[in-house]
Amino acid sequence: MEQKLQATNHKVQCSKFKVQSKKSSMLKKEVIGQQEVWNRLMEMVQENRIPHALMFCGPEGCGKLAMALAFASYLLGDSPMLNKWEHPDLHFTYPTIKTSDMGSDHTPVSDDFIKEWREMLLKDGPYVLIGEWMQKMGKSDADLNKQAIITAEESDALAKKLIMMSSQGGYKISLIWLPERMNQQSANKILKLLEEPPRQTLFLLVSEQPELLLETIRSRTQRIDFKKIATEDIEQALIERRALEPDMAHRIARIANGNWNAALEELNAGNEKRQHLDMFIMLMRLAYMRNIHDLKKWSEVVSTFGREKQKRMLDYFMHMLRESFMYNFRQAELSYMTQEEENFARNFARFINEANIIDISNLFEESKRFIGQNANPKIVFFDLALKIIVLLIRK
């Protein structure tokens, strides 16, 4: 009798998921490619073996958050509340900053920015960058110079939400975006939740740098790795969603190199990436000329950027370094540069070789780490500029 009852419950659960499939297929359309991952998630559902914590990992722009939202929506069923991301059993956690209008005794939590978060998902879609999120939260230029983190108070607030019973009788889902930005206290409290998860709770962690998480947190989640989006999937999405001609879609898809955000940047004529290219060109030209006076001015200019933007700029510098090195091989299929980038690389690439590429790359990585540790940006970038002078002449 007990076995029959268990079998019946299992059938009811599977049937429930089948009913939800209409809603899930609609939301799944927001995800570009990644069919393999979706199939794996559906297998978990069908076999009734969804773990209590999943961690989606992969490079920027591959659709981890889009997939987490689609999967959460699938599990929560067809509800009009999901149209505005206001479902009472879906709890969002994300990095926040203390804005200039907050009281001195207030520590920010996700609910302080839930209106901005929902508006961003509805207006801009589920392919979110931390820089864009900072812009949504910031109330002043000073706010944008701060680093976004997940606070211990946020972990406390989440624990209080999850201890409550599900309002709809199904899953409670905790979606944590960029958990690597938890401070130590927050990480320890989240670890406790993962060790003793509240009943009927699923944690969906969406991480770009899982290596920065506590090993004990990583060990308590089932990791799902995302690959870059296939070029043909990005190409098709550009044609269908942005009405691009096939030739243009193909070119942008190749440059994007599996990153939907990069593809969108290429469509934006005034994008940040072009500013990063200008700063890279200026740095390399001034370093080649050994113009220390103007390099000092350069470092003062970039030190005024917010820390998150400085880190994105250094990521871009690493991209240009790699692409310039590959340009030396003169094989078009190895190049992932825009026409502007290639125009600069045509003369610059010869200065990047096996004798200096590793050290320059390490220099950019080290500078990014220093910025993340709140080092003085003027000192960091001027030191970087002086070292580039020496490295560029290495043969």
Structure description:
Strand 3, helix 7 (about 185-195) and strand 4 form a beta-alpha-beta unit. The chain is built from 17 helices and five strands. Helices cover about 55% and strands about 5% of the residues. The chain has about 400 residues and is α/β, with parallel strands linked by helices. The protein has helices at about 1-30, 35-45, 65-75, 115-125, 130-135, 150-160, 185-195, 215-220, 230-240, 245-255, 260-265, 270-290, 290-300, 305-325, 340-350, 355-370, 375-390; strands at about 55, 90-95, 170-175, 200-205, 220-225.
SSE diagram, text form:
Layout: H1 2-28, H2 35-46, E1 53-57, H3 64-76, E2 90-93, H4 114-124, H5 130-137, H6 152-162, E3 172-177, H7 184-195, E4 201-207, H8 215-219, E5 222-225, H9 231-242, H10 246-256, H11 260-267, H12 272-288, H13 292-302, H14 307-327, H15 339-348, H16 357-372, H17 377-392
Parallel strand pairs: 1-4, 1-5, 2-3, 3-4
Helix pairs in contact: 1-3, 6-7, 9-10, 10-11, 12-13, 12-14, 12-17, 13-17, 14-15, 14-16, 16-17
* Strands in their spatial order, largest beta sheet: 2-3-4-1-5
Oligomer: single chain
Task: Please provide the count of β strands.
Answer: 5
**Mean pLDDT over all positions:** 88
* Helical proportion, percent range: 55-70%
Q: Tell me the Rg in angstroms.
A: 23 Å
Number of helices: 17
Compose a concise summary of this entry.
With 395 residues, the protein is α/β, with parallel strands linked by helices. The protein has helices at 2-28, 35-46, 64-76, 114-124, 130-137, 152-162, 184-195, 215-219, 231-242, 246-256, 260-267, 272-288, 292-302, 307-327, 339-348, 357-372, 377-392, and strands at residues 53-57, 90-93, 172-177, 201-207, 222-225.
